[in-house]
Amino acid sequence: MTQPDPPNTGQRSYGRALLDRVLAGTPSGEQPLTHVAELPAREAQFDDWPSWVIPELTTVLTARGIARPWSHQARAATLANDGHHVVLSTGTASGKSLGYQMPILSTLLSDPRASALYLAPTKALGADQLRSIISITDELREEAPQLAEVFPSAYDGDTPIEVRQWARANARWIFTNPDMIHIGILGAHERWARFLRNLRFVVVDECHYYRGVFGSNVALILRRLRRICARYGASPTFVLASATTSAPGAAASRLVGAPCTEVTEDGSPHGPRTVALWEPPLLKEITGENGAPVRRSAGAEASRIMADLMVEGARTLTFVRSRRGAEVTALGTQRLLAEVDRGLPGRVAAYRAGYLAEDRRALEANLSDGTLLGVATTNALELGVDIAGLDAVVVAGFPGTVSSFWQQAGRSGRRGEGSLVTLVARDDPLDTYLVHHPAALLDKPIEATVTDPTNPYLLAPQLLCAAAELPITFAEADELEAEAVLSTLAADGLLRRRPHGWFITPEGQKYAPHASVNIRGGTGTQVAIVDGESGRMLGTVDSGKAPATVHPGAVHIHQGESFVVDELDLEDGLALVHPEHPDWNTSARETTDIAITAVHSERTLGEVRIALVQVNVTHQVIGYLRRLHSGEILDSVELDMPEQTLDTRAVMYTITPELLIDNGIEPERFPGSLHAAEHAAIGLLPLVATCDRWDIGGVSTALHPDTGLPTVFVYDGYDGGAGFADRGHRAIAEWLEATKDAISSCECPTGCPSCVQSPKCGNGNDPLDKAGAVAVLQIVLDAYGKRRRG
Questions:
Q1: Over the stretch 557-600, which tens digit does the pLDDT of each residue have?
Q2: Which of 272, 467, 511, 736 satisfies CB 3.0 to 4.6 Å to 504 for a cystine?
């Protein structure tokens, strides 16, 4: 379904002209475009400079081309200057940085002892913001010489030790990330006494990024930061910046642990945007697992689109879901461009996390100055890095949330002209649903971020860190709802309750609490990926993900170079690889067992039961598939990797065998029908919960030992849960209705990766019954509908 051009336009927009160029390159007979939307331009809304802004600062900002601030910048800055915690939630490229720069620089100019802290979720964003502030302060020194001693400085994992020591002793504005706050500042707060005693502002940039396990850990870190600041007599004002999101004030308040005022009315201008939804065709000549049809991959389609755009001279950013995908998409674009212009392949690169610091910095510089015309990236470039003048954004696969999609889309059109945004659907149920139901993407409210600082699996190690920093008072324990968790830590001999609070024991100190916590949800240790022939370190991967990503035989791509893993040693944290250029890639296979340990909530709807339960999940990587880049399966290789277990939360439903039979599903079809419904539901859960399908898992069985019935589980992939299953349980009707629609919308005859096949299925996507899955979901929806009507 293609939306007609808006009336009375006179001529097509620049974005639509770029889309026409891409469509002209589409092979004959293919019609991948499912929907086009034309988003109008927005006019700017200005305000006067606030009277409290130091005149020297307005002089410099005016000279930099900022005649007056936009309305949202002025309002957020004034709230922060008046001491109110504030969250500025407006679109990409809306100048949120100025909202915190005005009060911080004015304060640093007027108070020679004041300090400020800036937190970013990625190193790239932090480095970009630091470059901006250094540029401004260099110009300000001519107007205000006292700024010579502000010394804005980085303090992250890439910062050399001697620079860290200098920054701690001298800098008044530190640019860092939550990881370094956790282990480098709070874990050694006595060394930071000068800085913390004078801390006036804390900036939490791109705060919508902090969700799930990572967000919950950051919420606890910010609470620890506030209590340490209080110990030194400081009470800093928090200024949070966010992409457009639902209820940003409530989300920011949960993150900081204190009330935050929200500013959401965006006064910035932007040019018109053309948004295209694109579904690659099914490939008739190639089949995947069990003979299922395969679509042309989103990465291959994105490579062709990016190549066409670059030939037109359009500066293009392509977002890809995985590190490997970014590398492959960049290589594919280079091959296509080499057939047109030998000078263009050198202007394409991949960008992703896991690169060494010097490689990232070089890529960022080349992207900023226009040396690179096209970049294939993971979401590492979604946040904040200032990339001016992009003409087009290609999103290869829905990024998991509507918020992230608009954040990525907002990278385009920064010159105020028209631009093109193209979402290319992957072989995935959620992508299939969205390109055939555009309102679910283009008209849907932005999601709220989900954090749960009370999760005991996160709270316990964070409390141990807090107690190592300062004894925890009884009032703090009440505020954190932590009495039960503290008692458990005391029973384990790690804490001791005294008349004045909770104190860490020598045994707790031996536990090395700060070093043992990986706040981003991993196991706390990293596996180094090393070229065994040259000894060169290529990057790292979390040890919890290593069995599935760098197992023996896995293909690993680094900056266009291809390697194959020879050995994985989890104890020593080492994966040895060798250079090789196979014409296939690999995907791991896992088996999963699940046991119910508690029931949190349940509803019995006749012969259907829906419940939110606590479960123990045991899973193991048992092998991997080798498949050609076309999607065709070469073979399956067995592995014997260690088991991993977690205690988490799941949403589940059961259906009696009699009801399944009454609806035309005979017993021999039970396993395939439930299995297909489970796979598709995992793919669609991100529609109602702020998560990625790789954050969740599922199990289905025709007879589960704990229920005695045909049962489907979808669970959070983190100890203690991350709120995703809870969201699915609350929105189960919307979730399962969309799942059913996604399966029905797919034109494949019996099931494919776009509807019921899963890329991580331990059973080789067998058995799967597409028609049976639709019937299973309808049974649950009918039962739920009858209950609501009753």
A1: 776 678 999 999 988 889 999 999 898 888 888 888 999 999 99
A2: 467
> Please, are residues 414 and 390 in contact by the beta-carbon 8 Å criterion?
yes
Q: What local confidence, expressed as pLDDT, does residue 392 receive?
A: 94
> Encoding tokens for residue 733?
């009707």
CA dihedral 190, 192, 196, 202 (to 10 degrees): -130
- Predicted TM-score (pTM) of the model is 0.76
Task: Indicate the SS3 state at residue 176.
Answer: strand
pLDDT at 505 over 90: yes
Cα diameter, the chain: 83
The contacts of residue 249 (CB under 8 Å, 6+ apart) are: 87, 260, 261, 262
Instruction: Match 């100190």 to its residue by tokens.
Output: 509
**For residue 604, how far is the Cα from the chain centroid?**
35
Average pLDDT of the segment spanning 312-337: 90
Question: CA–CA distance from 167 to each of 159, 302, 619 (Å)?
Answer: 10, 43, 45
Phi and psi at residue 285, in whole multiples of 5°?
-85, -5
Decide: 310 and 347 in contact? Cβ < 8 Å: yes
CA dihedral 476, 482, 483, 484 (to 10 degrees): -170
3-state secondary structure of 337: helix
Residue 2: strand, helix, or coil: coil
Residue that the structure tokens 């600062």 belong to: 57
| Residue 638 confidence class, pLDDT cut points 50, 70, 90 | very high
Q: Which residues contact 356 (CB under 8 A, 6 or more apart)?
A: 537, 539
- The residues facing 568 across adjacent strands are 575
C-alpha dist (Å) from residue 564 to 332, 377, 431, 584, 628: 19, 22, 30, 11, 15
- The pLDDT of 183-196, averaged and rounded, is 95
Q: What does the pLDDT read at residue 280?
A: 93
Helices (H), 665-722: 670-684
HEC string of 395-420 equals EECCCCCHHHHHHHHCCCCCCCCCEE
CA distance 127 to 216: 24
DSSP classification of residue 182: I
**CA–CA gap between residue 421 and residue 408 (Å, rounded):** 9
In whole angstroms, give the CA distance from residue 544 to residue 430.
26
User: In this structure, how many other beta carbons lie within 10 angstroms of the beta carbon of residue 275?
Assistant: 26
- Work out the angle between the directed axes of helices 456-469 and 483-491 (0-180°, nearest 10): 70
CB neighbour list of residue 39: distance below 8 Å, 6 or more residues apart: 272, 273, 274, 275
Helices (H) and strands (E) in the chain, counts: 26, 29
Q: Are strands 537-542 and 526-531 parallel, antiparallel or unpaired?
A: antiparallel
In this prediction, residue 657 has a pLDDT band, given cuts at 50, 70 and 90, of very high
DSSP state of 5: P
**Rounded CA separation 306/345 (Å):** 12
- Report which DSSP code applies to 183: I
Predicted local confidence at residue 2, as pLDDT: 37
